[in-house]
């Protein structure tokens, strides 16, 4: 599994833990819903700026995001 897939899966899992839809995340983070979908499905590279926006909007820190066995 490449890094795009791992980042996308982690983002999706954390978003779902917070019971947040892609639409709500898009609205609250000011990041396009289609972009979020493509990132979550490993089809698109995400910029560090957008990754930080999404992670913070969901309610996690960068440390918490990357502190996962899929990144070891």
UniProtKB/TrEMBL annotation:
Read off the InterPro entries from this record: Cro/C1-type_HTH, Lambda_DNA-bd_dom_sf, TransReg_Diox_bact_type
Which PANTHER family does the record cross-reference, listed alphabetically?
HTH-TYPE TRANSCRIPTIONAL REGULATOR, HTH-TYPE TRANSCRIPTIONAL REGULATOR SUTR
Protein species of origin? Sphingobacterium micropteri
Q: Record's SMART domains?
A: HTH_XRE
One Pfam match:
HTH_3
Which keywords accompany this UniProt record?
Answer: DNA-binding, Transcription, Transcription regulation
Tell me where in this chain the HTH cro/C1-type domain is found. Answer: 11-65
Name of the protein in question? Helix-turn-helix transcriptional regulator
Superkingdom assignment: Bacteria
